[in-house]
Amino acid sequence: MKVIVCVKQTPDTAATLTVVGGKASWGDAPLVLNPWDEYAIEQALRTKEAHGGSVTALSLGAEAAKESLKQALAMGCDEAVLLSDPAFERADSLVASAALAAAIKRIDASDLVFFGKAAVDTDTGVTGPQVARRLGWPSLNLVAAISELDPAAKTITVERLLEEGRQIVRSPLPAVVSVVKEINEPRYPSFMGIRKASKAEIPVWTATEIGLQPVPEPALSWPEVTAPARTEQSCEFMSGETAQQQAAALVDRLIEEKLI
Amino acid sequence: MDFSLGPEHELVQKMVREFAQKEIAPSIQEWDRKQEMAPQVLPRMGELGILGICFPVNLGGQGMDFISLGLACEELEAVDTTLRVVMSVHVGLCGLSLLQWGTEAQQAEFLVPLARGEKIGCGAFSESGAGSDVANLQTTAKQDGSDYILNGEKMWISLASKADFALLTARTDPNPKRRSQGLSSFIVDLHSKGVTTGDLKGKLGVRAGSTGWISMQDVRVPAASRLGEHGEGFKITMSAFDSGRYTVAAGAAGLIRACLEASVAYANGRKTFGQPIAEHQLVQAKIARMASDYEIAKLLFLKAGWLKNQGVRNTVETSRAKQFATDASFHAASEAIAVHGSYGYSDEFPVERYLRNARGAMIYEGTNEIHSLIQAGYALGNRTDKALRREMPAYESTRWQAELDSPPIVSR
User: Of B365, B369, B391, B403, which is the active-site residue?
Assistant: First the structure.
């Protein structure tokens, strides 16, 4: 099977988002592989291990995003490609999905494309479904398990994790799958992978090379970002000589606050 | 001059950090209380290749350099000192001595299984009456035909009860001209007849590790297991310390970092007099010192690691790195307890464990007092590095990472 996994380099999850000159800024936070994408890489690798074939990691970003691709290689991906072009600099998910879909077409004949459920910085969760739409492939998102994959019949059955429960969905291949963290436990990079990754020359494809001309203008901008209002927390101890009295006082207090 | 780490170093750092944080950190307090080593530590470190990190691929290792070894030790000790101790004795004392001094046959027999993590190694030099004073050790090795017969007891040996092999130094000449001359080193199979081992309990720190004794009664060791030449044991022991101390130095940097991170988190959350204690200047002074000491400790071990990569002798640089970082880690842990107040004194928070763990490293691999003497010896011109018959080979990535069928690495 030919598997592609799309990954993004994002600020570390501990970073704080601020607005500088009308643009969202993460300051000088360290950049990491989007944590959700580690689950996508793991699932791509497991698919290859079960059915053979290859895994290509694909990322859109600046030169520095090669570090995230190196992590994907160190985990076991066979190849990595960076999509980088000055025209992608302000990319929103519409631009990103156009570029990723064009690159997936250039790689050609892939059977499955994995995404993490969202990127921790923009948190839209729509790039995967948009790529599926552009390719005209089924989109399976919030996938918590792949219950069946039949490369010969070209079908896939997955469990989608919904608030109400799990939904079983079957679709033909090729398909785009975005995964949630319940799907697996990502492996660490192996030393063999690290050796390979540190020597790897990662090819960079420009907008022209993937046949995306002109690059669409982004539709979204972030005019303002605000932090959620701080909630005041306080701690109150219930008095009472016995446990029963304390429990009764607690119940009265909760009723008073209209919590029960 | 380039202070940046390469992608290989960063990936190693991340990988070892994730392993230690995910698999060991959640249960370490429990094992520390039990005074037992968590059973998954050695098998997992073996499976992941950490136990063979800096040995050439064609000797069963992972082909990384000395900087990677240091970074791994830093990450391990940031979770618990006992994890780094494994690296000090398995990789530092035992494995790297085999890389430096071993014959091709000895490397094939002993180093390859150690590097693959299939066997565990340790270093056995100290005795109840001889620690820093190595030349005074009492364990004897008498030649008997083509074998040596070993008798004596080693004490304070990390992984004594877990290891398969020990690099062990014994007296082969009872009446040499100089006490340091009559010693020889051996790779002893700890499953041999006449060997008994056990763990010591009641230690101040490194309670989730194994520290013990090795007793030998008429243990027959073939001459083929003697590392280096007959009488070369003192030099081999000293060069083993150049490797082991490096891992101690790097680990102690990780311990300082752990103290710093715990103190920053606590100082930002805990309020007194109406503001987070991080706003109090005397708390800030403690945190500033920890941050600065971490940086110094890291620079010192990275420089020693860089020298090792170049194949340059680094006895004094490694000594400085070990002494500074271990002293600073004890200070950092004590100050971290101060930042935490009474909570720091209880094992609800990890900083009391950091303090207990930090103290040992000021004693083992040369007490910090001995390190002052070593450094003074170099500064006063009384001590210089003499050429060894076998030097630790310089790191060369193409040779270290060449796959299995390439020619063996024999040191200069």
Answer: B365
CA distance B67 to chain A (A): 14
B295 as an active site residue: the answer is no
Task: Examine the pLDDT at B105 and tell me if it is beyond 50.
Answer: yes
Is A40 buried (19+), middle (13-18) or exposed (0-12) by CB count in 10 A? buried
Kindly state which CATH superfamily the domain A2-205 is placed in.
HUPs (3.40.50.620)
Say yes or no: ipTM exceeds 0.90.
no
Across the interface, whether the CB atoms of A194 and B53 are under 8 A apart is answered no
Per-residue pLDDT at A56 exceeds 90: yes
Would you state the pLDDT for residue B412?
A: 39
Tens digit of each residue's pLDDT (9 = 90 or more) over A80-106: 999 999 999 889 999 999 999 999 999
- The span from the CA of B74 to the CA of B119, in Å, is 23
Q: Once rounded to an integer, what is the mean pLDDT over residues B291-318? A: 98
Query: According to the model, what pLDDT value does residue B215 have?
Result: 98
Residues of chain A with pLDDT > 70, as a percent, come to 98
**How far apart (Å, rounded) are the C-alpha atoms in residues B141 and B134?**
15
**How many CA atoms lie less than 13 Å away from A246 in the CB half-sphere?**
8
DSSP 8-class letter at A227: P
Q: Compute the average pLDDT of residues A43-65.
A: 97
Query: Between chains, do B11 and A194 touch, taking CB under 8 Å as contact?
Result: yes
Which residues in chain B touch residue A188, judged by CB atoms under 8 angstroms apart?
15, 18-19, 48
- For every residue of chain B, which 3-state class applies, written as one string? CCCCCCHHHHHHHHHHHHHHHHHHHHHHHHHHHHCCCCCCHHHHHHHCCHHHCCCCHHHCCCCCCHHHHHHHHHHHHHHCHHHHHHHHHHHHHHHHHHHHHCCHHHHHHHHHHHHCCCCCEEEECCECCECCCHHHCCCEEEEECCEEEEEEEEEEEECCCCCCEEEEEEECCCCCCCHHHHEEEEEEECCCCCEEEEECCCCCCCCCCCEEEEEEEEEEEEHHHEECCCCCHHHHHHHHHHHHHHHHHHHHHHHHHHHHHHHHHHHHHCEECCEEHHHCHHHHHHHHHHHHHHHHHHHHHHHHHHHHHHCCCCHHHHHHHHHHHHHHHHHHHHHHHHHHHHHHHCCCCCHHHHHHHHHHCCCCCCCHHHHHHHHHHHHCCCCCCCCCCCCCCCCCHHHHCCCCCCCCCCCC
Residues of B in contact with A67 (CB under 8 A): 7, 10
Predicted TM-score (pTM) of the model is 0.89
The beta-carbon neighbor of A198 closest among B6, B49, B62 is B6
A222 and chain B in contact, CB less than 8 A? no
pLDDT, greater one: A30 or B233: B233
How confident is the model at residue A161, as a pLDDT? 96
Query: Which tokens sit at A148?
Result: 């069946």
- Which range (A19-33, B110-124, B324-338, B355-369) has the least confidence? A19-33
Is B396 an interface residue toward A (CB < 8 Å)? no
User: Chain A contacts of B19, Cβ < 8 Å?
Assistant: 188
Interface-testing mutation among B8, B11, B24, B116, with chain A (most A C-beta atoms within 10 A):
B11
Query: Which residues of B are less than 8 Å from A192 in CB distance?
Result: 49, 62
> Per-residue pLDDT tens for A211-233?
998 999 988 877 777 767 777 78
| Ordered domains of chain B (ranges, CATH) | 7-120 (1.10.540.10), 122-233 (2.40.110.10), 235-379 (1.20.140.10)
